[in-house]
Amino acid sequence: MVMVVLGQSVLAQQYKVVLEGTLWRGDNDSHCNSNIDIHLGFTDNSSINLLPWHSLNGFNVRSNWFDWFDWSSPRKKKPIEYLPGSPQNPWKILETTSFPVSQIPKHVNTRTSKNWHRSDFWVSWCGGGGSFDDRRNYTPISYCLNKLPNIAEGHGSNFTLTIYPDVSILPPDINPKLGRILPSDDPFELKATPGFPADVYKWEYNVGLDGPWLPVPNAEGKDHIVFKGYDLMSKEKFNALHGKKNIFFRIAPCPTFQTELVTVTPKLSAPKIVSITPIPNLCHNTTDGSMRIHFDRALYPNESLHLSLADNIKSADSFPNITELSHDNTIQWPSNLAPLEYNLNMIGKYNGVPTYTDGQQHAFIPTIIS
After folding, report:
1. DSSP helix/strand/coil, 240
2. For the chain, percent of residues with pLDDT exceeding 90
3. How far apart are the first and last CA of the chain?
4. Which of 135, 178, 190, 204 could tie 213 with a disulfide, CB 3.0–4.6 Å?
5. How far apart are CA 311 and CA 338, in angstroms?
6. CA-CA distance, 289 to 273, in Å (whole number)?
7. Considering just the CA atoms, what is the radius of gyration of the chain in Å?
8. In terms of DSSP bridges, do strands 303-311 and 330-332 run parallel, antiparallel, or are they unpaired?
9. 118 pLDDT exceeds 70?
């Protein structure tokens, strides 16, 4: 079962905003008022600027306008240069900003003006032909990807607006020095930047990056989860990954945005120590004591354990290459032990690859042989 860990501090997190697209206008003169600006509006009626004021006077000019008055020969016009904003050379817009998680986006407010330049030989003016000033277009938007074609009224445009949470998967609190190891039957932790709405936390995993992304069971909506390898898949499937394939995790709040991948090594959890029964020495000052160690499961085929004892006078003993337990999942220490305090530790292997032995029940302290 996947558990949520409570008590995380909620910080003032941010959503990132990217406005990207194309904008053009090629047939009006810089003498007239043709421009655009774009704001992102929120449900509390506040707004932030997405695209600062841009002039849209992308008229065609010649390399040297004095050529118009070259009467020495028939007029030869130089090649036309297209300024930014013309149909032949559109503006490529890329603007970024952010806003706090407390604000909820509502719409994009696009304000445009369009005025034609008109002239005769002596007089010039602006207007006519559908000219207008400060016309607004309110386009509803949501989180993730928004396609915004033709929002600049009177001018050619094609924008996308992406709003995504500034969320990432954080380093673990549980055994941080061990790296990202997912034991089959011991707790494993994933935590993310806290403080976002629940629908941001869509946890997914992928085995070996050669199959589909799958949801982490019972994890959606939680910024901090603790689970075991057997919570993801069956014992048979998980054990088959040991020493062969990694598992990758991510948060996917949007179809077009996911966090960076976290690479995790799956490992079979070695059998856990349920209890230890001391076997006392028969007589005073003898060393014929022992202990019986009770584990929570039998050993799998091709699985082995190496047990070690350290006593309180710094001597040591070991029980290597254990490949089978008794029918009740116990084993008795083979050597005669003196009446001392002992610490028991283990290492294990499965198919020649080390198993996970860093859980709380993979060591036992202390054991006293009286």
Report:
1. helix
2. 58
3. 41
4. 204
5. 9
6. 20
7. 35
8. unpaired
9. no
Say which residues have a Cβ less than 8 Å from residue 113's Cβ, sequence separation at least 6. Answer: 33, 34, 35, 36, 132, 133, 134, 135
Cβ 53 vs Cβ 122: under 8 Å: no
99 and 42 in contact (C-beta within 8 Å)? yes
Tokens of 283: 């007589």
* Long-range Cβ contacts of 133-136 (<8 Å, 24+ apart): 133/33, 135/111, 136/109, 136/110, 136/111
Q: Which tokens is 114 given? A: 């369009």
pLDDT band at residue 163 using 50, 70 and 90 as cut-offs: very high
With beta carbons less than 8 A apart as the criterion, state whether 358 and 332 touch.
Answer: no
**How far apart, in whole angstroms, are the C-alpha atoms of residue 137 and residue 289?**
87
Residues 59, 27: Cα–Cα separation, whole Å: 5
Please give the backbone phi and psi of residue 362, each rounded to the nearest 5 degrees, phi first.
Answer: -100, 10
Q: Do 357 and 311 touch, CB atoms closer than 8 A?
A: no
> Mean pLDDT score of the chain, rounded to an integer?
83
Average pLDDT score over residue span 320-341: 91
3-class SS at 176?
helix
Q: Helix or strand or coil: residue 335?
A: coil
pLDDT value at 76 more than 50:
no
Q: Which two tokens stand for residue 130?
A: 């559908």
Task: Supply the pTM of this predicted model.
Answer: 0.81
- The token duo for 354 is 């080390």
Q: Which residue is it, tokens 């986006």?
A: 105
Query: Who contacts 326 (Cβ-Cβ below 8 Å, separation ≥6)?
Result: none
Pull the structure tokens for residue 121. Answer: 């030989």
Do residues 213 and 206 make contact, with C-beta atoms less than 8 angstroms apart? yes
Task: Quote the Cα angle for 69-75-80, to 5°.
Answer: 90
Q: Tell me, what amino acid is at 344?
A: L
Both tokens of residue 202? 């869509």
Q: Do the beta carbons of residue 131 and residue 114 sit within 8 Å? A: yes
pLDDT band at 288 (very low <50, low <70, confident <90, very high): confident
Report whether pLDDT(301) > 50. Answer: yes
Confidence of residue 1 (pLDDT cuts 50, 70, 90): very low
Q: Which residue has the tokens 């499965």?
A: 350
Query: For residue 172, what pLDDT band results from cuts at 50, 70 and 90?
Result: confident
